[in-house]
Automatic annotation (TrEMBL):
Protein's recorded name: Abhydrolase domain containing 18
Organism of origin: Cebus imitator (Panamanian white-faced capuchin)
InterPro entries in UniProt: AB_hydrolase_fold, ABHD18
Pfam family, one: ABHD18
Domain of life: Eukaryota
Amino acid sequence: MGVSKLDILYRRLLLTKLFIRGWGRPEDLKRLFEFRKMIGNRERCQNLVSSDYPVHIDKIEEQSDCKILDGHFVSPMAHYVPDIMPIESIIARFQFIVPKEWNSKYRPVCIHLAGTGDHHYWRRRTLMARPMIKEARMASLLLENPYYGCRKPKDQVRSSLKNVSDLFVMGGALVLESAALLHWLEREGYGPLGMTGISMGGHMASLAVSNWPKPMPLIPCLSWSTASGVFTTTDSFKMGQEFVKRFASSADKLTNLNLVSRTLNLDITNQVVSQKPADCHNSSKTCVSATSERLLLQDTSKIECFNQTLSTSKSSYTSCNPQSYHLLSKEQRRTNLRKEPLIFMKGVMDECTHVANFSVPVDPSLIIVVQAKEDAYIPRTGVRSLQEIWPGCEIRYLEGGHISAYLFKQGLFR
C-alpha cells in the first residue's frame, strides 16, 4: 500500500510550526499528567460534569431551512485544573444548527469537533452541518476548540500551539466540554446523540465518547489510536512513559497529594483539585475565585525529576557508548541529539493520548472508523489497531491520502 506524498510534505511543514516554545512549564505538565489519570477512567470522569451543568444561549438566528444558535459556557477544565488554560480559552463557545422540521418524533444531533486548523465554524457548518440538514434532517453542534478561533491566545500564531502541554490541555478540555454539551442536549430533549470529527477532531471525539457513560454512535474520520503518529518501543519511548508514571503513579494522587510547604521553606498553599463541580458553577465569579484556591500541588521534587529526565533523554546516547560517540562527526552527533527528544516526546504523547489508556466505549459496535488507505500523515504501521482496542467497531477505507480526503471527500464522511 502506497503513501501520499502530499501528506508527507504537509507533515514536514506542520512539524516545523508546532511547539516552538517547547514542553511548557514542568508544573503544568505534572498537573496534566495527574488529571489524565482521572479522565482515563470513565467511572471517575462521568462525575466531573454534573447533568445540570449551565449552558447559555446568546443569540438565535432564523434562516430559511434552519435555526442557528450561538452559545457559551465555562469550560469545566477551568474548575479542575485552574490557571492551566489561557484566559481566552476558558469560555467554551459553540454553534448549534437545528432544522426547522424533523423527519420523525426523534431529534437527532451530532457534535462535530474541529480538526487541525479548523477555526470558528464556517468549514464544519458549510461542508457538514448544512448538508446533513438537507440530507437527513439532523442537527449539528459545532464546538470551538480551545486555542482556536475566539478561544485563541493573543500571542499564538494561527493554529501553531506553542507548547506540548497546550495539546494536552486541549484534549482534556474537549472531553469535559463535550460531556457538558451532551448533558445539555439531553436536558433539552434532543436525541439520539452522536459525535464525529475529522483528523484531530476525530481523535478528540474518540476520547470524549470513551468517557460518556451511555452507548454513543461515533464516527472518527482520518484519526487512529494515538496522536503521536508513530508508535515506537525504543528506550526513549519507555523513558517517556516512565517520566509520566513518576509524576502520577495513581489517579488517587489528585486528591491525596500533600506538600508540607513549611518543611521546604516555600510560600505555597496546599492545594488539590476540586471534586465538586456543582459547587463551582453556581456563580462564575465565585467559581473562578474558589477554584483558584484549589490548584493541584506543585511538587518541587517531581519538577526536579522532570528536568532530570529531560536531561537524561538528551544525553542518553553519549552515556550508553561514550567511546563510539567520540568517533562520530559533529553532524552525526547533532542528528542523534535531535532524535532523542523527538522519540521521547512520542512516548509522552502516547501515554497521554493513546485511546488504550482510556476506557473502552460502552458499545463499540456503534463506532465506524473512516480511514484513508494512503494516509502518511497519521501512519498506522506499528500502531495498535482500533479494532483490537475496541472489539466490535467497524473500519472503512477510502482511496487516497489524509490531506486529499480532508479536502475533497467530506461527502463520504457524512
